UniProtKB/TrEMBL annotation:
Residues 60-149 form the Methyltransferase domain. It comes from the Bacteria. Pfam families: Methyltransf_25. GO terms for biological process: methylation. PANTHER family: TRANS-ACONITATE 2-METHYLTRANSFERASE, TRANS-ACONITATE 2-METHYLTRANSFERASE-RELATED. InterPro entries: Methyltransf_25, SAM-dependent_MTases_sf. GO terms for molecular function: methyltransferase activity. Gene3D superfamilies: Vaccinia Virus protein VP39. The keyword Iron-sulfur does not apply. It comes from Actinomadura alba. This is Class I SAM-dependent methyltransferase. Keywords: Methyltransferase, Transferase.
């Protein structure tokens, strides 16, 4: 599906009926050939927006998957770069693509780091966390950063109510809720549970100072607002 190298419908169905961890273990060898991988345009726009804020020391990719975001850290960070994910399969693919990086298998709701990194990024992962789980995720990233460290990630604007994308994403989320109501373990993957205002509130509660910048290279909506913004969550510097 999606390309000759991508997963079949049967493979995707098996993944969706598994747990999140097992599902991504199964999908890992073909993940980079699906639309679920963060597009190069989003990665490039994020790198361009972060470059004037660097250089940084050590970098962390939270929910790194197959390592698509690792090249951003390599270009922006002068020290070692690390990816963390809980999927064995995804980390195996990431190690093959970036053997010079460091890889850690862990639940990112309990990150095993303390004041280690100067820059943390994440791409396309927030939909895998229920709103009640975001505080633990953001608190862990806050602990993992050194004073003055930055947590950055792109976030898309919601599609207009009358667009096909709005109804497609709504339908997907409803289907996932039905699936999780009737089958265990759940597969948490939602597109409409992390609006910018809610994410900003959770980051602020974790201790971050939050700003956003438009990723103008990714275009505008019909009303002139940006299609994507880069969230910049800064940890306070030591007095």
């Amino acid at each position: 599906m999606f390309s000759p190298q991508g997963p079949s419908l049967r493979e995707l169905a098996i993944q969706a009926l598994s747990s999140v961890e097992r599902g991504y273990d199964l999908l890992a060898p073909k993940f980079d050939h699906t639309p679920f991988r963060t597009p190069e345009s989003v990665l490039g726009a994020t790198a361009d927006a972060l470059r004037p804020l660097g250089p940084f020391g050590q970098g962390l990719d939270v929910c790194c998957g197959t390592g698509a975001g690792m090249w951003i850290l390599k270009t922006l960070c002068q020290g070692p770069v690390t990816g963390v994910d809980f999927s064995t399969g995804m980390l195996a693919q990431a190690r093959r693509a970036h053997p010079d990086a460091q890889w850690v298998q862990a639940d990112v709701r309990a990150l095993p780091f303390a004041q280690t990194f100067d820059l943390a990024v994440t791409f396309g992962a927030l939909g895998h966390f229920l709103p009640a789980e975001r505080p633990a995720l953001f608190a862990g990233v806050y602990r993992a950063l050194r004073p003055g460290g930055l947590f950055a990630f792109p976030i898309g604007a919601p599609p207009p109510l009358m667009s096909g994308w709005y109804w497609a994403l709504l339908g997907f989320d409803l289907a996932m809720r039905v699936r999780n109501a009737v089958r265990r373990p759940p597969f948490v993957m939602y597109y409409r549970t992390c609006p910018l205002h809610a994410v900003r509130n959770d980051l602020t509660a974790a201790g971050f100072t939050v700003t956003t910048v438009p990723l103008t290279a990714l275009g505008q909506r019909e009303d002139g607002s940006p299609r994507y913004r880069l969230v910049l969550a800064r940890k306070a510097r030591t007095p």
